[in-house]
Amino acid sequence: MRIAIVGGGIAGLAAAYELETARLAGAAVTWTLFEERARLGGSLASQTVGGAVLERGPDSFLTEKPAAAELCRALGLGDALIPSNDAARKTYIVTRNRLVPLPDGLMFLVPTRLVPTALTPLFSLRTKLRMAMELLHPPRPAGGDESVAALVERHFGREAVDRLADPLLSGIYGGDATELSAQTVLTRMVEMEAQYGSLTRGMLAAHRKMRAMAKNAPQGAGGRAIFTALRGGMQQLVDALVARLDPASRRTSAPIAALARTPQGWRVEITGDGGAGAAEEFDALILATPAWAAAQLLTRVDAALADELAGIPYSSSITVNLVYDEARIGSLPEGFGFLVPAVEGRSMLACTFAHRKFLGRTPPGKAVFRAFLGGMKRDDLLATSDETILATVRREMREILGERAIPAEAEPEFAQVTRWPRAMAQYAVGHKQRMERVHARLAALAGLRLVGNAYDGIGVPDCIRLGRRAARELAGLPEPATSQRCPGSAGN
Question: Would you state the CATH architecture of domain 101-216?
Fold first, then answer.
């Protein structure tokens, strides 16, 4: 069995690792990975500057989704896994240039404690009353898909969309709550609405169940951090994977010109790196590219499938890292950072105090800020110069945190701007139905698998899970003893 992998991001690397492990164990399988860029790893990219770990892309993964941590341990990186500093976890929402903490008892988008919700300045009195009355919502039979904004507004009002749902989901998806699919992104809430009517009652019931499970769990099994990172940055995972892969089987700077079906499997037409016009034959194919790139390659193979993939929207993003000497800046508010609602009219979507989120990755006396810009509503920022982006971020940080915290004369010791064009898939309304149509088309294309953040989860663990599963399916390898699928809505 000879398998081609097109795309060298984390999904493609995970697939290659699975196949290489099987090959070394004696399985009759070979593989070749093609990546159009000079480096492997996709958006997982980090570097250490003056002892500070700086992440250009994702800085961590959700602990509750085990696929990433399992792979790290298999690669010998278990000792490098570090938990988020949840004891100091506190997140703010920018409201009219004020930092307002998310109220206690907020379970994702649902307020579950009366007093903190009543006292928070995040919402108006009208919205607070509506949140109290939400307990009376009757069960609503599950119907067709709708936007996240429609679901949240029906229960808590428009202000909850603007001040809560939109900034929280922008931080995860870089998307727009009016476009994202409730059925895919908020699967549990859709189910709760059908069963309980009130999302508050549903969340309280889920919380009671979780506490009962934690009480009955073996000693030491609970209390896991929400996020997990690598001490040396997410680049550690990429480097460890690449080190396990046969150099002769991985090809960088090797863009693919076209794909074609053959009686035996698939033909990959290669360009670049001296291979213009060359073609290679494979028994099976894993496409680990963005959906829009897969659509371009599959147009001549299956136009209907290509159209479905091309219809998956993508957002672009910009990550800005700033390193400061703490002696040059003032005191910061407690917590991990803040989210900026679109209604505030700012360029920034969020800012993380990275030196607090993961301890031990920043030298004493240094502060690292990670700002995020772009998303579905500000794609135009991608064409802005680095100088303008840095000036905008520094100005907005001063305006939000205050001149005492970030004085105008305090220059960062290091500044870095990274652009990620069309990098984040958006699970728009109807995504579940689109995936059903995609899988129906794939069923007629033997030996083809699609993996990446466009299909069944946008996070690093999801991409790893999908990549490894695709490799096992095509090579006829057995399922692992531990499950890599975590139930619930799509997420990091």
Answer: Orthogonal Bundle (1.10)
| All structural domains of the chain with their residue ranges | 2-43+238-312+427-475, 101-216, 316-424
pTM score of the predicted model: 0.92
Interval 188-219: pLDDT, tens: 999 999 999 999 999 999 888 877 766 665 54
Q: How many other β-carbons are positioned within 10 Å of the β-carbon of residue 253?
A: 14
Please give the DSSP secondary-structure letter assigned to residue 87.
Answer: G
How far is residue 492's CA from residue 484's CA, in Å, rounded to a whole number? 14
Helix and strand totals (H; E) in the chain = 17, 22
Whose CA is closest to 374, among 306, 315, 311? 315
Q: Check if the beta carbon of residue 445 is closer than 8 Å to that of residue 259.
A: no
Are the folds of 101-216 and 316-424 the same? no
What pLDDT is stored for residue 406 in this prediction?
Answer: 95
Bridge partners for 266 per DSSP: 261, 282
- Just give the CATH number of 316-424: 3.90.660.20
Two structure tokens written together for 418:
């990274």
Separation between Cα atoms, residue 425 and residue 293, nearest integer Å? 12
DSSP conformation class of 165: I
Q: 2-43+238-312+427-475 is classed in which CATH architecture?
A: 3-Layer(bba) Sandwich (3.50)
The Cα 74–Cα 148 span in angstroms is 37
Distance CA 152, CA 110 (A): 9
- Tens of pLDDT, residue by residue over 418-433, are 999 999 999 999 999 9
pLDDT tens by residue, 10-38: 999 999 999 999 999 999 999 999 999 99
Residue type, 10: I
Distance separating alpha carbons of residues 412 and 403, to the nearest angstrom? 15
Distance CA 317, CA 379 (A): 8
